[in-house]
Write a structure and sequence with these properties.
The chain is of the alpha/beta class. The chain folds into two domains: 4-57 and 170-342, Rossmann fold (3-Layer(aba) Sandwich); 59-168, 3-Layer(aba) Sandwich (Rossmann fold), CATH 3.40.50.1100. Helices cover 45% and strands 15% of the residues. The protein is built from 15 helices and ten strands. The strands form two sheets. Strands 1-2-10-7-8-9 form a six-stranded mixed β-sheet. The longest helix is centred in the middle third of the chain and has 21 residues, at 171-191. The protein starts with a helix and ends with a helix.
């Protein structure tokens, strides 16, 4: 049966980059180690790190709609921006390689890290392997202005160019996670359960906003989604996410109004700033690896999982609750943070 959300999403061009839903698996060993099995709390993992292109990750869902629009418009070149170790940049480069589009990345040294691995390994290495043309700017540079200037130059030479902002987090890109909300709802039916809360990291806000908009149109409300801010302070993240949620709903043809207190964001895991490690993040990455044999990244999912662990230990959930943690990928970043984990 087609829902209002399905009908709204079908109006938009989409490149089928995922080729099917990502799996949900139960964190059975995590449940035992954390004592959740005895409390009657279920912990489930949505494997958005498990995708077919470029090493996977949440940005691929956003790119389905951005690239769908690009292909429909006859675009031959995609330019995007991000930090030096941007997952969005890496996946944009991979998708462009797959589809035969030219890709230019304008990356900024936005994190105060200068280790050799951070400069040359991880996503930076993969960007090069995927054949992207890479420019690196100093921290604080206006990379979007640079991208628009470069796009204008290419258009003058006859190229058709699309410029994507940081993280692909526009209302159009956020449709990828509105679609994910529908996917999760279908998987709930197959599993015979309902998730009390869906947990994600929050950087440029597109993942949270898309899920919130999707669940709103499914009649579940936006507060089912909780995120942990990894880019900005809690207040800034909340404002950004509320605006993007509202804009995404509008793009989907909904006149629903979301209130500020219906957007749940926790700023406790940011630490000293974006991309800067915290002890809780390191513990969370180690626990996921050693309990389930799964990898989460140090910038996004590592901090979000640390936040979820804190909530679980503080008794935020009750018997009968099922919690879904969305693993958003970004694992190539582990290699850029080698000294954090081996130092």
């Amino acid at each position: 049966m087609q829902t209002q959300l399905d009908t709204a999403l079908n109006a938009f061009a989409r490149a089928d980059l995922l080729q099917g839903p990502t799996p949900i698996q139960r964190g059975e060993r995590l449940e035992r180690l954390l004592g959740l099995d005895k409390q009657g709390i279920g912990l489930f993992l949505k494997r958005d790190d498990y995708m077919l292109i470029g090493g996977g990750g949440n940005k691929l869902r956003k790119l389905e709609f951005h690239i769908g629009a690009a292909l429909a418009a006859g675009v031959d070149t995609v330019i995007t921006i991000g930090g030096l170790q941007s997952n969005h940049a890496r996946l944009t480069a991979a998708v462009c390689a797959r589809l035969g589009l030219a890709c230019e990345l304008i990356l900024t040294r936005s994190v105060p890290k200068t280790e050799v691995d951070y400069e040359l390994n991880g996503n930076v290495l993969l960007d090069q392997l995927f054949g992207a043309d890479i420019s690196v700017l100093a921290g604080g540079s206006d990379s979007l202005a640079k991208a628009e200037t470069r796009a204008a130059q290419l258009r003058e030479s006859g190229r058709k160019v699309m410029v994507l902002p940081t993280g692909g987090s526009t209302p159009l890109g956020s449709l990828g996670y509105a679609r994910c909300a529908a996917e999760i709802a279908q998987q709930e039916t197959a599993l015979g359960l309902t998730f009390k809360q869906v947990i994600v990291p929050n950087g440029s806000a597109g993942t949270h906003a898309g899920l919130a908009a999707g669940f709103q149109l499914l009649g579940r409300g936006t507060s089912i989604v909780k995120s942990y801010s990894v880019l900005s302070d809690q207040a800034t993240s909340a404002t950004r996410t509320l605006t993007l949620t509202q804009d995404t709903l509008a793009l989907l043809g909904s006149n629903a109004i979301v209130q500020a207190d219906e957007i749940s964001i926790d700023g406790s895991q940011l630490g000293n700033g974006y991309g800067l490690p915290t002890p809780a993040m390191q513990d969370a990455v180690h626990l996921m690896a050693r309990a389930e044999g799964l990898l989460i990244d140090p910038v996004y999912s590592g901090k979000a999982f640390a936040g979820l662990l804190a909530d679980l230990r503080q008794g935020h959930f009750r018997a009968g609750d099922n919690v879904l943690f969305v693993m958003t990928g970004g694992t190539p970043g582990l290699y850029a943070y080698r000294e954090t984990f081996q130092g």
